[in-house]
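step=predict obj=DNA 5'-3' helicase n=1134
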Amino acid sequence: MNKRKIFINFNSFLNTRNSIYEIEIKTDKNYEDILIKPEMKITSMIEKHFKIKADDFKNAKYFKPVWNKIRKKYPQKYYKYISFKIGEIEEVLNIYDFYITARIVYPFKEFQNFRNVKKMEEFYFEIEDKYNEWLEDNKELELKQSKNLKLKRNNSKKNKKQTDFDINIDEIFSKKGKLSGKKKYEYRPQQEKLALKIIEAVKKSENLMANAPTGIGKSLAYLINAIKYSHEKSKKVLISTFTKKLQDQIKNKDLPFIKNFLGIDIDITFLKGRKNYICKRRLKEFINSNQNKKIKEYVYNLYMNHGVSELDDYEINYAHREKLKSEICNREKCEYYSECIYWQLRKKAKNSSILVLNHRLLVVDLMLNRYKNREILIVDEAHHLESIITDELGGEIKYGQFDFLKKSSKRAGKIIRDWHKIYNNIENYEYEDIREFVDNLKLIQTNSSRKIADFISFNLSLLKKYFKHRKYYYVDKVFKNNEIFYKLYPYYIGNWIKKNIWQKFSSSVFLSGTLFMDDRIMLSLFKKIYNIDGKRFEFLSLKSPFDYENNVKYYIPKNFPQYDYQNKEKYFNAVVEFLKEYIKRTEGKLMVLFTSYEDMNYVKEEMNNFFQKNAIKLYINEYNQKKFEENLFHVIFGTYSMWEGVDIDNKYLKSLIMIKSPFSVPSDGFFVSKKKVLDEKMYYFYYLNNAVIKFRQGFGRLIRSRKDKGVFILLDNRITQKSYKKFFINSISKNINFEFLPVRDIFNMAEAFLFDKTGLFLKNYKKRKNTYKFLDYKQVYIARDGRKGIKVIHGAAGTGKTVILLHRLKFLLMNFPHINNVLFLTFTASLSRYIENIINLENLNVEEKNIDIKYFYSLCEDIYGKKKNDVKFNMYYQKVYKYIKKNENKLEKYDVIFVDEGQDLGELEYRIIFKFLKPKNSDLTIAIDDKQDIYRMNFQKFFKNREVMEYKLKRPYRNTSSIMKFANLFIRNLFMPKRDEFFYKGEKPIIKRYNRLIKLLNGIEDFIKREVRNSNYMYNDFVIVYPRKNIYEQNNIADTIAEFFKLKEINLENIASYRNKRNFLILDNNVKLSTIHSIKGFEFKIVIMLGIDDMYVTNRNKRLLYIASTRAKEKIFIPYREISGFIDYIGVSN
């Protein structure tokens, strides 16, 4: 029993578009018994439209009884098949009306491949007769319900064009047009304007030159116009793109969308250069070679069974690709010519209504006069066309120019020797001097194979250019790879453009994000190069739809070495250090653009260890968005191939750094050749224009949609001193400007812009001068430590313990999907509320992510169900622990637990915490400041016999050096930062005496109002702290202060009160009031320390004042009444 497949048309209630569906054929006894069965693919769209479920359809009576009977009579076995690409089926079988562009599978015949599609066609029509015979022989199967599965020969004929279908561009692209109802489509006025301008240009037989920036949807605008004119007016359209990637994007993304939207058949062909396709002859050689067996099977299966003919679709290395692509084509003389996909596509391209190719193929084909019957030319990424035309009209003369003749002619030896003699003195020869050599070449040409003859013909034209028409070319003597060769650049390409484009096509549309600079001089330059007379040309410059002013931050470093070609190493060492710090701060998601391989490789080598140590994936001149999900922390290094045509989702690309301004080498022959036709001023602007276009294209990688947001940094600060700076800036937008900042400020500003959801850091940044919320190298390492287990972070106040916990929380949630329950635990209620405020400001949805934020007592009360009442805390926690042990199976277990201010919890408390942790794959991270251990809890005992990862932080970031020196009075031997750009000296604490309490309170009021008035502080920047409630002979100092502030109409909130501990907001613009105990873990810009003169000098109280003083980020104010207590201790005199 053999089982085979084909695809063919049949009638069914689902086949509303005459689509091709898969048919299964079972045969026995030389094809005597044949069954045809459709394979229905029920998509979600079909389910919704027909109100039918895929599972129900598979089990429906329509098929099931029939197939059950068939299986009994004909047991299933494996089948063999051969596949052909859709283009081949179109060409021979004339089947054009399919909708699903899946592979098309046809059967083997007696286990032998069809020699060509025509042979396959013969077998195709045999199926109908076999099927009818089979129906007659299998009446008992009762296939009446399958009567619609009848093959029809007329289904293989091409459908007539739907010439009555009207494509109204205005109705499609307008604000309430047909496209506006499409999912994920966004109306863009620039797109509508461009589409209408293209109509106008084609109607008037004019040429449109348009700057169409990224994001306006230019592909849809020109594609739908192309389809309109090819469909309605029967005009043949030629579309040229710069890269094969863009061809593939049109084919695989844009075209399916348009087909679905318009609901019509589109006669379109995509053509690439011959070397992009597998050569059947070389495939046979490859299969018969001693290559790796698995690779041979992979290639053979993909080509023969799946019809994959483009080399880019094969996941094989460069060496294998070279062995499979066409080297020299014998054309009609090749035994595989009729099966060659390239020549079949060439044949199809002649008659196709729309042909899509790339710029190089366009120029070569225009030189061969191949597009006589094409009327409309559309060129996308047209700014590249000039260089490609220049390249193709020029050429290269080399010492080994005729080495290809060695094995093809007996006279080759003499020809090669004569050429070497000419080449060694080439600059002194004219065309007449080499006439004999040329004649000998022509003689060999007449007796050579076609492929050799073509090569000779090509080289003869090069000899003529160099020796006969040298005055029209700039000849650049190039030394590369230990070889000298001569490269030809035509001085002027305008005449060629006029003859082959402006005069050949009735209408042309040139599009690019940066086709010409919107400037009078630059526009004049563009017209001269392209030989534009202005009569049939319109210039259109569209604005970008993106908000570049608000969605991007632009920076140039101030304290950074200038690029110097003579001392590149110094510059690139600075680049390496900049990139390391920037990547640590911003978590990667960065593209770095270089202007040379040499520079990129140097930086790469210097940073390899950094990337490995930090588990950051580096991509070189490539990217893979699917793999970005696996490697969340990644960096892309790219040279010019990555400066354009790269489209990366904003969630994977947040920053773009340009290492150098993209100026080309002035001695490059391409630019020198322009000096012949441009005066000095015009040449300067031509050279500048080239750099500006590259700059704009490079920047365009960062922002790809309206919602995208990012940071753009140009490290080359020479631009700030140049007059041409405005051209670079205006190429992005006239409304933006680069900030010229110190390196550290760039790090802080960029990190704040990307991560600080509140925007508070960026507001008045220069006033703040601190690095809160940012991680240094060691902090990053701790936050991103992916190992599970117990982690204890030791650090003094302001070293970033809480910041690390928050970053670690985000890191774990982003990278480990299995984490469902998180507990963030603090010792005090006020600190738990503070943490909740920060998490909300950081845009982490507490409910969605199942993040519980509690203080320790509330955790115990919730599970135990009873309050502490008059029982001491230790006794209460013992009861809780006993209850938990008995009811452990009822506990809600957590994947991750964070503990802040962990020094305030003892062994018993940690035993309770441990009960809430899942036994496997869980994580416990604890932040501890030993110097704040005012309760003397024995927390170390719990961890004594457990495996613990410990980290020690030494460098404080919160406080100014003046505040740190003051805190050092209470806790000796604190780490003191060195004076560098990381830290700011700040003001010394203000200590002022008032004789009476009322005067002291008035002094506090005056201080607060003065700072708000003069330094732009907000009320929520202040906190007043006191050691206990009965200072200064008051029953409750908090009540006294509250009454005073109420009279003065200053909003005050006591966050030490039980009610406010749970409800206060960080940004409510209230002055905060608290005991020192309750303020642990907090930070404020200004701390007012009250009552330190009413405190005994004890070690416990020293720790309290250390806590109070280190809450301050910028200033401390200490009002007092008497020279006693700690006022006396710190040595304050009258």
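step=describe
Residues 777-957 form a domain with the Rossmann fold fold (CATH 3.40.50.300).
step=end
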